[in-house]
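Forum > Structural Biology > Help requests

Title: Can anyone predict the 3D structure of Exonuclease domain-containing protein?

Hi all, first post here. I have the sequence for Exonuclease domain-containing protein but no way to get a structure on my laptop. I'd be grateful if someone could post the C-alpha cells.
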Amino acid sequence: NGGSATVSGGGGGGGGTGRDDGGYKYWLVMDFEATCEKDDRTWPNEIIEFPAVLVDPTTREVVDEFRSMVRPTERPTLTRFCTELTSITQDQVDGAPELKEVLQSFDAWLSSHGISEDGALSIWCGDWDLKTCLPRECERKALHGVVPPVLRQWCNIKFPFCDVMGSKKRRGMDGMLGELRIELVGHHHLGIDDSRNIAKIALALAARGGVESVAATSHARDVSMYRKANGLVRAREQAAEAVPPQPLSPSHVPAPAPAPMSAPATTKPAAAAAAADGA
Ligand code: AMP
Ligand code: MG
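Reply #1:
Sure, ran it for you. C-alpha cells for Exonuclease domain-containing protein below:
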C-alpha cells in the first residue's frame, strides 16, 4: 500500500441533513496513527495514518472509505517501536502528503458525501485523537481553520459501550471486541483496521442498545483548528437579517435570544461524564 491518498468511491451527495429517524445519516469511524517512541510521553506525536470508514447506520453498510498516509515533518524517521506497533513503514510515509494537504483531501471527500459540516457522527476509540493528538499537532504547525467542522463533536465509543453493556470498566478496542465476541480483523494499531473494527463495535452496540445509544459524548473546546462552518454561519446571518429591528421603548420586553443553530454537544452520558478523559 503506497503512501498517497487512497480514496475510493465518492459522489453520494445528498447528506448534510443531520439527524434522521433519531440517528445520524452517517457514522464516520476514524482512528489516527502517529509517530511515537516507547515510554516517551514527551514525544510530539505527528499523525502518519488518517483513515475514515463511512457507515450508514440504518443499512449497517460501509458506504465508502478514506485513507491517506501522512508524512511527518518534525521527526520524519519512524522509530522501530512505531513501525512494530502500527506496521507502518518508512516507505509508506516518505511519499505521503503532509497533514495540511491530507486535511484538505479529507474535507473534499467529506463534501462529496455532503457531510463536511454536519450530518455525520464521528466515532473514535477514546478522546486522544481529537482532544490531544490533532489539536497539539495543529498548534505546533500553526494549522488554523483547516479541520472539517463535522469533527467538532465526536463519540468516544467507550462510553456507549459501558452504557449498553452495563460495564463499569472502560476497555480498549480489543477488550470491547472480545466482550462482544467479535473477531479482531487485521492489524491492531493500523488505523484503517482499527477504524473497521471500531465500526463493528458501534454496529454491535446499536443492535443491542438502539442506534441512538451511539451518540456524541464530547465536543471541542478550542475551535481554532476547525474551518468555519459556512452553512451554519450563513444560516445564522440570514436568521438575524429576517428579524426586523425592535423599537426601543420603556415598555419593550426583549424577545428571548434565538436558539443557537448548533448547541454544543455536551451530551456525555451522566455515568460517562463522571469518569475521566476516556482516551
Ligand atoms: P491506537 O489508536 O491505539 O492504535 O494508537 C494510536 C497512536 O497512539 C499510535 O499510532 C501511537 O502513536 C500511540 N500509541 C499507542 N500505543 C502506544 C504505546 N504503547 N506507546 C507509545 N505510543 C503509543
Ligand atoms: Mg489505532
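The chain has one domain: 18-244. The radius of gyration is 20 Å.
Shout if anything looks off.
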